Amino acid sequence: MGSPLDYRVVSIGTLATHPLWNEHTEVRTGHATTTLLCAGSATILVDPSLPAQALLARLSERCGRDPGEITHVFLTSADPLHRRALGAFPNARWLAHELELDAATEKLTDQLAEASDCGDSELGAILKTHLSILKKCEPAPDSLANGVDLFPLPGVTPGCCGLLLPLPRATVCICGDAVATCEHLAEGKVLPESFDIKQAQESFAEAVQIADLLILGRDNLTLNPLRPPFGL
Q1: Residue 65 has pLDDT above 60, yes or no
Q2: Where are the domains of the chain?
Q3: Residues of 189-213 as b/e, b for ≥16 C-beta within 10 angstroms?
Q4: Are 95 and 73 spatial neighbours (Cβ–Cβ below 8 Å)?
Q5: What is the domain class of 5-219 according to CATH?
Q6: Tens digit of pLDDT for each residue in 155-202?
Q7: Phi/psi-derived region of residue 64, left when phi > 0, alpha when psi is between -120 and 50, beta in every other case
Q8: How far, in Å, CA of 45 to CA of 67, rounded?
């Protein structure tokens, strides 16, 4: 990894229910795409979504890295699915977009109050655990490292946020769930369960407009089919 900025997909994500495969119920365990970025002294893991044991194995297989080398973990979404293995990186800085952290914290706080009113102590304990995790996360700066910039893509969740890598030969966008799969990209569709469909559609369009290469939220790295070839 000798270049100033290196990126690699560690684990390809999937949807539990893929609506564009004519699926209507959960047929698999969903998980988000995980990406590793190496930029100068920063080693950034994006969306550690697999269970810890599986993700650490992938990190070793794909990148030859161990968890102690990760300096930052960035969450495109605060949803628990995107942070299953977060605890495997206790020495890294945990980062997410401030709007996403605020919205998720407010939602969990409201759910905790409802659980308390209903006397559901088991649910309350789970919600308190999720809140404690979010409290350890920091609002991400506009730039995580040289050449790694926040790219807000709200709509799927209130503060969904990708990362933009403006490389010399191509602009790469780590999309999170704003652009979920190759089928969603080809058909110009967003996830139906999005928090704000109109806003999600606008974010989808913005990602497609700016990026030559897209790392999709539940799929692989792919060329943007709506942009002309750039001579890889």
Answers
A1: yes
A2: 5-219
A3: bbbeebebeebbbbbbebbbeebbb
A4: yes
A5: alpha beta
A6: 999 999 999 999 988 999 999 999 999 999 999 999 999 999 999 999
A7: left
A8: 10
